Amino acid sequence: MKIDIKNSNVSGSIPTTSSLKPTEFAINNFDGKVYYLKDNGIKSISELVSTKHTGSFNLKGDMIIESGSGDFYIHGNKQYNYGIFESTSSFSGSANVSYSVNLNTTDIAHEISIVSGSRITFNSTGVYYIQYQAQIQQGSGDCTIVFWTRNNGINHSNSATKITLKSNNYHLIPGGHLEEISSGSYVEIMWQSDSNNTVFPYSSATDLVYSKDGSKTYIGWLGLTPNCILYQIKTQQGPYTYDELQAILATPEWS
C-alpha cells in the first residue's frame, strides 16, 4: 500500500473530501496540522491531534502518559504533584517556644521535597491540601498545644489547631487545609506547647495483639513502653495505663 502526502503552506488551508484519497495525508506546514480522509459511508476530513490545540478538545477513551515520557499541565502548572513525609524520631521542646516539625524521611514524592529538614518545598504552582497528624504524649501537668502552618517564614492565617491535654495522657491530632502555593515556595508545620513536658514520641509499627478468638478484640501500641494506648477492648476505648492494660491481659479472654 502506498501512502501519499500532500502539503500546503497557506494558513487555514484544509483539504476537501474530493482532494484526498483514503491512503493520502495532507500536511499544512504553516499551521502544523495533519489531515486525512475519513470514510464510514459518509466522507469527511479529520485532523490528527497536533502538539498544540486551541479550543475545546473532546476525547473518547483513555489518555495514557507513560512513565518518564512527560507530565500533565494546566495553565502552565504541572499537575498531580504529591509527597508523604515523616519524622522517625521523638522530639520535644520548651514551654511557649515555637518549633517547626523536622521531617527526616520521604516515603514517596513527586515535585515536592524537604529542604533544610522542615521546609516542604514545591516545584510547581498550584492549590495543595496540606494534611498532617501527630501523636502527642503529655507528662505531668495539663497543657495546651497549638499547630499551624508557616509559608516562606510567615504564619498562615486561619491555619491554627488548638487542643488541651490532661496530665499523663496521649492524643492523636489531625490537621489540614487547602493552600495556594507558588513555585519555589515552602511550607513548615509549626507547633507550640505551654508545657515543658510535651513529647511527640516515635514508635515503629508493631503487630497487633489479638484475643484468643482472634476476631473480637485487639490491642495496638502507641508510644514508648510501658506507655501505651489500647485501641479496642470489646466496646471500650482507651487510653489505658500500663498497669490497667496488664490487668486486662491477665483475664481469661487474653491469657
Protein model, in words:
- With 255 residues, the chain is mainly beta.
- It has three domains: 1-63; 77-200, Jelly Rolls; 205-255, no CATH class.
- Helices cover 3% and strands 42% of the residues.
- The chain has one helix and 21 strands.
- It has one helix at residues 242-249; strands at 4-8, 24-28, 33-39, 43-47, 73-74, 77-78, 82-86, 91-92, 99-100, 105-110, 112-115, 119-122, 126-138, 143-151, 154-155, 161-165, 169-181, 186-193, 198-200, 209-210, 218-219.
- The strands form six sheets. Strands 9, 11, 12, 14, 15, 16 and 18 form a seven-stranded antiparallel β-sheet that branches. It has a four-stranded mixed β-sheet with strand order 1-2-3-4, with no helix packed on it.
- Strand 3 (33-39) and strand 4 form a beta hairpin.
- The chain is elongated, with a radius of gyration of 30 Å.
- The termini are far apart.
- Residues 221-236 have low confidence and may be disordered.
Strand content: 35-45%
The number of distinct structural domains comes to 3
Rg, rounded, reads: 30 Å
Mean pLDDT figure: 80
Distance between the termini: 80 Å
User: How is the CATH topology of the largest domain named?
Assistant: Jelly Rolls
Largest sheet: 7 strands, antiparallel
Q: What is the architecture of the largest domain at the second tier of CATH?
A: Sandwich
Shape: elongated
Order of helices and strands: EEEEEEEEEEEEEEEEEEEEEH
Helix/strand-derived category reads: mainly beta
Which CATH C-level class of the largest domain is it? Mainly Beta
Helix content bin? under 10%
Low-confidence regions? 221-236
